[in-house]
Amino acid sequence: MDNKIKVCTIGGGTGMPVINQALVRAGFKNIKSIVTTFDNGGDTGRIRTDERGKVLAFSDYWRALISLWNDGEQKSVWEEMLRYRDGKERNFGNVFFQFMSEKTGNLSDVDSLFCKLTGASLEGKVIPVSLSPADICFSTISGKKYFGEHYLDDQRMSQDYVNNIWLEPEVEANPEAIETISNSDVIIVCPGSVYGSLITNFLPKGMKKAFAESKAKKILMVNVMLTANENLIKNQADYLKTFEKYLEAEFDIILMADVSKLDQDKLKKVYGFYAMENSTPVEYSDKCRIKTDLADIVTIDENNWRLRHSETKLADYFAKMDLCHKKD
Fold first, then answer.
1. What is the mean pLDDT of residues 238-244?
2. For residues 298 and 261, what is the distance between their CA atoms, to the nearest angstrom?
3. pLDDT of amino acid 34
4. What are phi and psi of 309, to 5 degrees?
5. CA pseudo-torsion sign 12, 221, 33, 314
């Protein structure tokens, strides 16, 4: 494995950190993570509401930043602090990164200040997809329209499927994000909320064009499960079509979990809990026109009876995978 390969991960939420941690564990040293900055749910939403929507969302940024921190004594301490919530559910990580953003004057420069304050050793950099605030808007098959990402969470058990998504106002992509996509050897679109954490990253002006023109090897990681309002997607071929609708570009490979490697009795139990949320697994189709790599990359979380991408399994996969350099 060439650990100097320039890897770009794209996503947000809880999916991207696992991929980053796996890449770090596998020995990669040049990882750049592009994250969405449009969240307006929970504590982040309260901060943005207080500021009349004129600030960026920090939650995905700091989670991705922590995931690039190579193992050290201070990492777990800082991660615990950043995740701390007080009695009013205010998150320390959001407040701390808002302070650093104001101190540096630019969210793109926060990582260097973070390293200076914490002694963190990062195997890459986190890049906000845009430096301008905006809100996620979407419509559903019933014709309803929603303003704000928190509605995606509110509607996750609804079978009134999402059929379109956009930003208001339209914003320009961060030039550093464009440059990263153009110069990367490999681009991995991580698992996560299809509309909230993933496709959203391609909505700022310039992102679709940069992705289409990039000579990087493009990998689409498929979610193991789908929320109810994503259920127009049935298999990895549908998953691919959903992304291509917005990206206007093709992927080189689809990476999909092989759940046949799991304990099938436990898997059945897990599926039963997901069914209560109208959540369904992404099925495998042999009709997909892009090569699909079925791999043993997930595990069963028996505390919550959910399926999770496994950091250790993914690290083994990435260490062995042919993450080739740019295409001719």
1. 92
2. 9
3. 95
4. -65, 135
5. positive
**Alpha carbons 70 and 94: distance in angstroms, whole number:** 22
What would the two tokens of residue 157 be? 């058990």
Beta bridge partners of 164: 139
Contact status, residue 320 vs residue 282, Cβ threshold 8 Å? no
> What's the pLDDT score for residue 306?
96
Q: Answer yes or no: are the C-beta atoms of 260 and 226 closer than 8 Å.
A: no
Type of residue at 106: N
Q: Return the bridge partners of 283, or none.
A: 235
Buried b vs exposed e over 175-193: b needs ≥16 C-beta within 10 Å? ebbbebbeebbbbbbbbbb
In the chain, the N- to C-terminal Cα span, in Å, equals: 20
Torsion angle defined by CA atoms of residues 298, 306, 225 and 61, in that order, rounded to the nearest 10 degrees: -80
Q: Is 80 buried (19+), middle (13-18) or exposed (0-12) by CB count in 10 A?
A: exposed
CA–CA distance, 234 with 202 (Å, rounded to integer): 22
* pLDDT tens for each residue of 97-141: 888 888 887 777 788 888 888 888 899 999 999 988 888 999 999
- Strand pairing category for 162-168 and 135-140: antiparallel
- pTM of the full predicted structure? 0.89
**Residue 299 token pair:** 């595990």
Could you tell me the pLDDT band of residue 324, with boundaries at 50, 70 and 90? low
Residues in Cβ contact with 300 at an 8 Å cutoff, skipping those fewer than 6 apart: 262, 263, 266, 267, 270, 306, 307, 308
pLDDT at 41 over 90: no
